[in-house]
Structures are given as C-alpha cells and as structure tokens.
Amino acid sequence: MLVLCVLILACGGVSAEALLRVLAWPGYADPDVVKAFEQRYKARVEVTFVDSDEGLWSRMNAKEGPRFDVLAANTAEMQRYYAAGLLKPLDATSLPNLARQLPRFRQRQRIPGLEQLGVLYAVPFTYSTMGIIYDKRQFASPPDSMNVLWDPRFRHKVLDFNGGQHNFSFSALASGIEHPFRLSNDERARLTRRLIDLRRNVLTFYNLPEEATELFVRHKVAVMFGNYGTQQLNSLRRAGADVGYALPKEGVLAWLDCWAMTRFAADPMLAQQWINYMLEPSVSSLLPKRQGLANTLVESEDLQDKAKVLWLQPVEDAGRREALWQRIMAGDRPGSF
Amino acid sequence: MRSSLLFKLVLLLAVIGILSSGLTGYYVYSANRALLVSAAQATLMGAVKDLNRRLGISVEQATEDVLMLSRLVQVDRALSMPDGPERERAKDELAQAFASMLALHPEYLQVRLIGSADNGLELVRMDSAGGLTLRVAGDALQEKAHYPYMFDTLALPAGQVYQSAITVNHERSSHDAEGVPSIMLATPLPRHDGQPGGLVVINVDLNKLIGPVRADLPRGYRFYLANSWGDFLVHPDPGQTFGFDRGRRVFMQDSFPAAKPLFEHGANTQVVNGLDQPELAPGSIMAFVRQPFGLGVGNDFLVTGLVEPLDSVLANAQPLGLRIMHIVLACSVIAILLAVIFARALLRPINTLAEAATRFSDTRQHQPLPVERDDEIGVLARNFDSMQRQLHQHMANLYDNQRELDYLAHHDALTGLANRSLFFQRLEQRLAGVAGDQRAFAVLFVDLDRFKDINDRFGHALGDQVLQIVARRLLHGVRSSDVVARLGGDEYLVLLSGIASETALGELLDKLMRSIGEPISVDGVSLNVGASIGYSLYPRDGDNAEDLVNRADHSMYRVKAMHHQTS
Question: For A47, how many CA atoms within 13 A lie in the half-sphere containing its CB?
Fold first, then answer.
C-alpha cells in the first residue's frame, strides 16, 4: 500500500510541473526574469504583486486564496513575519550566490531581521537609503547632519515626509539617541518637542514623491528628507532642480528588502532556487537599470562602504508614534502634550 | 420545365424581396441604434457640463462667503489689535458670525480665522461637530503655518480666493472634518502696516457639496471625479477613491483609457461609446470633461466623468428592433406571395404561346393569342400569329394541290368523269358494301358506234366535244348515286347501284341509248351517234369487279354485233 502511494506521488510529481507562488513588489519579478527561471528549473511560477506592507501582510494571512512559497519584504516586516511563525529557515548551502554579495550584506548578524537565533531566514535583495536631498545652489558644501532640517536659516525652505515612524527615528539620530527604533517614553516626549520645532521650520510635509518634487521646485526648497531615497532625485532633476544627495553623519535610515521562504513552501528546494536566482548578477543588475534601486552585489555610488546605515527595524510602539505624529501634524502646541 | 422556370423565377423574386426588406430593416435598426447612442452621448456630455456648472456654482457660493467674512470689521480687529477685552470681543463676534455661517451651510465643516503670526496659530475657529457648531478656543487652537492652504493663500494678493486640492483631511481634532474629503477655500488678509496678516478659511465637505448634484443624476449614471494626477476623488466604489491617501493609487486614466487624453494631451472633453469604440468604452457610454480648478499642488484641474451603461441606452432600440423584425417578416411573406403572383402573371402569356404552339402542331387549330399587348410578349405573340397564319396558308395551298392531283388521278381530263381506276375503286367499295346487302346492282359497258368515222371526218377536236356531250347525257340519264366513268377512247362504264328489276334495267338501257342516239349539234354540224350498251348483274354474273366488267364488255360486244347485223 505504502509503495503504491509513493509510486502515485512520484508519478504525479513527474507529470505535473512544480508550481512556485511568489509574493513580491512590482519590478522584482519581471516577466522575462520569471520566464528564464521557469525554463531553467522546469517549473511554473505565479507572481502576485503587492504595493504596501499592509497589503503584503493581509495576503500572507488571508484565509482564502493561494498559499505563497516565497515573499519579499523589508527587514522590519521580516521580523514581524518571523514572530508570527510564517517563515521557514533557509539553508545557506542551497544559496551559493550569497557569496557574490557585498561584505556589508554578508555580515548577516549585523542586520537585524535576517537571522533568528543564528538561523538564516531572509536574504537581502535590494535597498534604499533615506538621505538628505538638497539644492546645490543653496549649499556651498553638502549638508552632513540631519540637524540641517532644523536650521533656522532654511526656515520654510525645508520639506519633510508626513509619517510618524521615520520622523521619530531620524529625529532620534539627530538628537544623538543611540537606538532610534527603541525609544523610551522620555525620549519620545523629548522628540515630540523636537518635531514641533521641525514643524515650525518646514514649509510643509509631503506624502507623494511627485508632490515633493512639485513643492521643491515651486517653493525653492533648500533641503528635504528623502523618504523615497535616490528614486526622488531623478524626478527632481527631470523637473529642473539641481539637487544633491547626502548621507548624514549620524547615520542614515534605510529599508532593505529581502527574500524569504514561507512555512507553506511545498518545495523548499525550488523556493531556495528562486531566492538564489534572484541574486544572479543578470537578475540583480536589473534593479538599478529598471527600477533605480540598488542591489546587494555591487556598491552603489550613494552608499559608500564607510557610511553608517540603520536598516529599518520594528519600532518600540508604532501606534504611539503615529498618534503623537498626528497631533504634531495637526498643529498642537507644546503645552497641550 | 415550365414549373422549374416558375420555381426559379419565384425563388429569385422572393430572395430579392426578402433581401431588400431584411437589409433595409437592418440598416434602419443599426442607424436607430447609432442615433440613440449619439443622442445619449450628447445628453451625457450635457449632463457632465451641467454637473460641472453646478459644482462651480457651489464652490463660487463658498468663495463669496469667504470674501464676505473677510470683509467683516471684526476680522481686522482680531488680527491687528493688541491683546485685550476689545480684541476678545471682536473674536467672539466673529465666532458668532462663523457659527451662523456653519448653521446655514451644512456642507461647511470649519470656518476659521488664522493669523500668520505664531506659526499660523488659529485665532477664531468654529467646527461642525456631530452636526452642531462648536467653538474651539484656548490651548485647543492649533498652528497651521505648515499647511499648503496657509502658505499658498498668504502668497496671493488681497481679494483672491485660494482653492485647495481635494484631499482627505487628516488634521486631528478637527471634529466633523477629520477623515473627510474636503476642499479648503481661503482668502488672504494682508495688513497695511507690514505686520503679519492672516486668512479666513472655510473647509467644505466634498460629499455634501456633490450630494445634491449626484442625487439629481438620472438612474444608471455613474459619476467619477479625479484630480489632475488622475486619482479618483469620487467613484461609485468608495474604496477606489483617495488611493494616494492609503499608498495604493487608483488612476482614472488606468480605469478608463478613454480619459487618457485629458491627462496627457490637455484635451478638454472626451466622449466615447462602446458601439463605435468597444475597446475604449466596453459596454458603456462615457463623457469626461476637464475643468480648471484651484491653485494647489496636483490641483490645476479636475476631470469629471459620467458613465452610462450602453445596454440601458440600447434597450430603447429593442421595441423598434422587434417591430422591424416583424415588418421584415411580413415583407418577406408579401415578397414571396408577390413573387408567386408576378412570376405566374409573367409566365401566363408564355404558357399561352406554348399551348398555342402545341395545339397548332397537333390540330392545326388557331388559338387566340395575346397579340394586343404592347410589350415583348405582344411582339412575340404577333410574330407567332403571323407565322401561324402563313403556315396555315401554305398548308391550305398544299392541300388544294393534293386534292387537284387526286382529282386528276381519278378523273378523265376530257369529260370530267371518273376514270377506270376510280370506277374500279367504287365498284370494289360497292362489292364490299353489299356483303350485308344482297341487293343487285349492274355494271353497264357503253361503246359509241361509228365514233371512229366522226373522228376521221371532222377531226379530234370535234370528236372530243362529242365525247363530252355523251358523258353529260350519260350523267343525266342515271341517278346521282350511280357512277359514270370513261374507260378510254369511246368506251364508258356505268355502275348502277340499285336495280329494282331486270325490266326496269331494260327500260333504263333503252332510255340511255335513245338519249345518246339523239342528234348532236356541234359547231353547226348535226351528228347521229349511237351506242352499244352491255351489262352484267351482280351477283348473277360474278362477284368481283373484273368478272363483272368483262361480262358487261362481252355483253356490249354481243349488242354491237346485233347492231351490225341490224344495220
């Protein structure tokens, strides 16, 4: 009986092509890339794209619909998926292309979210820093600190992103706080005051990259927090701005998207072949070419080896930060906190 | 053959009739559909423009209100007076004015006076809170200098009104305004002394603004509104609106490729229908109008769109379509009937001609032909008729000739009497005729006496005249049913069909001999010609023609011999 079952399963496996379900962001798995993988590994790949962290989370936790084999998410989100028990450990020996990565990404224990208890769960794929974008005509030399956003010389010539999480984090860096993702209540209260000061110094807070570009050009903005990273530079330059990109000495916030295997992966071998394939130079090199994003194989110009990078991590209390930020944004005065 | 031609003609005419009525019906049907769609298109475009006009009027109303409030004297006092009871009183009076404005316009969410000093601190603020008006004061007042409606308004000259982009208001503690799609309308209040001024701003609820307009739209119309980037602001599915607010943008130009030219090429209107361009407007009619709007970022214009399902427009074409189908069916039946009638009418004269030809060839009978017609059939009939007549004439001539030949073959050319051949024919007929009728009959053999002398003395011409006269006398002497024939030379034969008795026969013979024996006057010459007549009787002397004539001949010789002896 058992022999029969094994035989049937084996035959089934031979006759039907293996199927890999991928959950990713637009630009991570273009059709030509998928097709080449399908031919090489004689498998069928189904890609589902998401456009927000929340969309990704709800797809992964959907009661109905397909179970995904691999997903791409940033390091902070990876910790959330690990904590929810949704990930399966990876076998580094099945991922020979890890050796091609820059030293910065090979030191995995230094990037929170990649390993848990010494076991590999996520592999870095692409990243973007959130540096300072400045108008070269208004700066003799590139600004080197996050504190430039508070500089009264640029009052109402500063743009910041309308978002609580990163604003608290970079304000913490600017204020010399060691762990920007782990703020104490006191630190948060202090930073609230700092953010009110920032609010009084900025022109406004933007939501969309194209909105930032329009405001930057129209109001002759001097300096801006680049929430969308170097991708914003192209759009600004197209709009006629002469802009530079600077990394503050306090350290730069950066998101790092990784590939991981879910606990639903039916064929872990195939899933890891996909992750390894994503690190092929032919595939990873498409990120700068097509998306304006950096890959983990080649040093990018705006991120020099010595730069201090703070890969995003889950913050101590996202809800609290957001609530505070809403009040700051609405214009509450220091006395009312 | 005839029926196959009829069938073909009926088929051809019926097909032409059905095809023409069907094609006409289809053309009318599709023309009607196109007409309906084009009318619906124009109506839809009119509705969009009307909608824009009404929205424009609503916004204009709020603009007037902003300007009206900005002219209140209390505004200047609240802005420029030093802190004190008088300034407070001005603020209280303004609060009352703002409150009555809010009460009057349910679509207004907030009415505020904001100073540009102190980071844009609100000076007087009335909020709509749960439908009631609520004055926000003291520490609850907020700094607003970092909002575009502040710095963009302050950059305007006095008397101008700023229109913000339509966005979801995320200003916390703004009561009813929080989380609601709205437009800010504001006017700057510059101060003449160079000190920071301020602005009056009204926050208008988008949904309440468009509510009455939307309610007035005909059923089935779907209403869309997008900003100049294409983000939906109004959509039948609220989940598709303000996507930029949730990091998941939904663009009008993606959902409706027909609207693309408005965003990319600066087109002002675009109307498409699914009948002509099914790929652009599948199953619907769409009208989009680009409307200049506001002054803010992403806010140069709005695109208003109405979409109507094509089915509901074309549903009006269905009754007509059904009726057209009925008419086409009726026309087809009529066409078939007419085809049968017409084909038969067309074929009837041809059939008449054919019948006439058949009858003529069978019986030589002359049939009436449709010669009075003045069409091709008439020509054919007339030609056929004249041909028939000619044929008839030829046949008659031929018949006459044949009768003449026949006469010549059986008659003696000189006397007109039957010749030997005809005589024998009649004799045979008589013999055949008496099979059942045993009545006796006689054959007489007449030979003229001394006729050779007459010929020798007076010539053949006179002899011939004598022979003719004798012939007439013989004919005269017998009944018309008897047969008189000239055998040749001066010999005659007579067939007497009915003999009452031999005595009567004797009397007849005497009478004939006397008649012939009477003097004959020819060319002034009187001649006496005698005749010897022998006879034979049937059935006494034979039962066949040969025997009867031979017996009569012999009998005649005996008589002639007697005449020689007596003379």
Answer: 18
Could you write out the three-class secondary structure of A150-196? HCHHHCCCEEEECCHHHHHHHHHHHCCCCCCCCCCHHHHHHHHHHHH
Among candidates B144, B244, B247 on the partner chain, residue whose Cβ is nearest the Cβ of A331: B144
| Distance between CA atoms of residues B556 and B548, nearest Å | 12
Contact A204 B147 (CB under 8 A): yes
Across-strand partners of B537?
B442
Q: B248 and A214: CB-CB below 8 Å?
A: no
Q: Where are the domains of chain A?
A: 2-125+253-303, 129-252+313-336
Same domain for B243 and B187, yes or no, is no
**Are residues B421 and B375 part of one domain?**
no
Instruction: Assign A134 a pLDDT band (cuts: 50, 70, 90).
Output: very high
In a domain, B436, yes or no: yes
Distance from CA of B246 to the nearest CA of A (A): 9
Q: Which of A59-63, A149-153, A195-199 has the lowest mean pLDDT?
A: A59-63
Type of residue numbered B144: K
Does residue B382 lie within any of the structural domains? Answer: yes
For the structural domain made of A129-252+313-336, what CATH number should be given?
3.40.190.10
Residue A335 has pLDDT above 90, yes or no: no
B342 with B390, same domain: the answer is yes
The pLDDT score that the predictor gives to residue A296 is: 94
CATH class held by domain A2-125+253-303 = alpha beta
Predicted confidence (pLDDT) at residue A15 exceeds the cutoff of 70? no
Number of domains in chain B: 4
Q: Is-contact A214 A239, C-beta < 8 A?
A: yes
pLDDT confidence of residue B295: 59
Tokens read off for A143: 């600004």
Mutate to test the interface with A, among B297, B299, B300 (most CBs of A within 10 A): B297
**One domain for residues B105 and B191:** yes
In tens, the pLDDT along A76-91 reads 999 999 999 999 999 9
pLDDT in tens, A191-218: 999 999 999 999 999 988 888 999 999 9
Residue B347 is part of which domain span?
Answer: 338-394
pLDDT over threshold 80, residue A151: yes
Residue among A51, A210, A333 whose CB faces B248 most closely: A51
| Angle, CA B161 vertex, CA B158 and CA B166 arms, to 5° | 150
**Which stretches in chain B have pLDDT values below 50?**
1, 297
Per the CB < 8 A criterion, the answer to whether A323 and A332 are in contact is no
Q: Give a yes or no: residue B250 inside a domain.
A: yes
User: Are A205 and B146 in contact (CB < 8 Å)?
Assistant: yes
CATH number at residue B303: 3.30.450.20
Binned at pLDDT 50, 70 and 90, residue A4 comes out as: very low
Size of interface A-B (CB pairs under 8 A): 70
Place of tokens 């929170």: A112
Together in a domain, B194 and B238: no
CA-based nearest distance A308→chain B, Å: 29
Helix B502-517 to helix B460-477 angle, to the nearest 10 degrees? Answer: 150
Does one domain contain both B233 and B196? no
How many Å lie between the alpha carbon of B311 and the closest alpha carbon of chain A?
34
pLDDT at A5 over 60: no
Q: State the pLDDT at residue A14.
A: 42
Q: Does B360 lie at the interface with A, CB-CB under 8 angstroms? A: no
